[in-house]
Specification:
- There is one protein chain.
- With 225 residues, the chain is α/β, with parallel strands linked by helices.
- Helices cover 60% and strands 11% of the residues.
- It has two domains: 2-83, Methyltransferase, Methionine Synthase (B12-binding Domains), Chain A, domain 1 (Orthogonal Bundle), CATH 1.10.1240; 86-220, Rossmann fold.
- α1 packs antiparallel against α2 (18-32) and α2 runs parallel beside α4 (61-83).
- It is globular.
- The termini are far apart.
Length: 225
């Protein structure tokens, strides 16, 4: 059944059916929960759209725009749901996020930002096509202990190595953690160590738990900026 729902959502997005797409997601969320609607329906469809764009260019800018708006619509509802829970009230620290140099697939990063904010993290989102030095500059400026870098394809994921090099060049390896994310890291787990990241998250909903774990480890080691 879930495959047919994904196909229905994909078809609706490509036909610019914004309201219908939101109805499909809402219907699934009512039965299976909002977490599952994101993980099992929305994320796989967005990944497929991204892969179609990368491999064939058979998706127009208008279709990509609609996909983005649908994701924003639904994630805003998810954010409202989680932000209303008292367990997300306390601020935990700050995170610098962005898509690495030459990467423009912003939907995944935006979803991660929503869940991190809802979980109590302050997020500094640098947007798309961010040079390595800018990530580290912002982390130092804001006192952030974590840099989250997103890339969808293998070619752009390799640019995350530059962030690792920049962190190490400035002698910040023990003070700033690097977290890599994006579809390619789910397909090729070995890339996490290959690009020099300290961790990755399997999806947007899992991201807060990853940052929480790193924060606990960081604090246990007595690290500080």
């Amino acid at each position: 059944m879930i495959e047919s729902v994904r196909e229905q959502l994909l078809k609706t997005i490509l036909e610019a059916g914004r309201a219908e797409a939101n109805t499909i997601l809402e219907r699934w969320a009512e039965t299976n929960g909002y977490d599952d609607a994101v993980i099992s329906v929305l994320e796989p469809v967005l990944e497929k759209i991204g892969l179609i764009w990368e491999s064939t260019q058979n998706i127009s800018l208008a279709q990509a725009y609609v996909a983005g708006k649908i994701a924003e619509d639904f994630m805003a509802k998810v954010s409202e749901k989680y932000s209303g829970s008292s367990c997300y009230a306390a601020k935990k620290g700050s995170v610098v996020l962005g898509n690495i140099e030459d990467d423009y697939h912003s939907l995944g990063r935006r979803m991660v930002a929503i869940f991190l904010k809802s979980a109590g993290w302050e997020v500094y989102d640098l947007g798309n096509d961010v040079p390595a030095a800018d990530f580290v500059d912002e982390a130092v400026k804001t006192g952030s202990r974590f840099i989250g870098v997103s890339a969808m394809m293998y070619t752009t994921a390799m640019n995350i190595k530059k962030v690792r090099s920049e962190i190490d060049r400035r002698g910040l390896g023990g003070r700033i953690k690097l977290i890599a994310g994006g579809a390619v890291f789910r397909l090729r787990r070995e890339l996490v160590s290959e690009v020099g990241a300290d961790a990755t998250a399997g999806n947007a909903i899992a991201a807060p738990a990853v940052f929480d774990k790193l924060s606990r480890e960081f604090n246990a080691a007595g690290g500080s900026i």
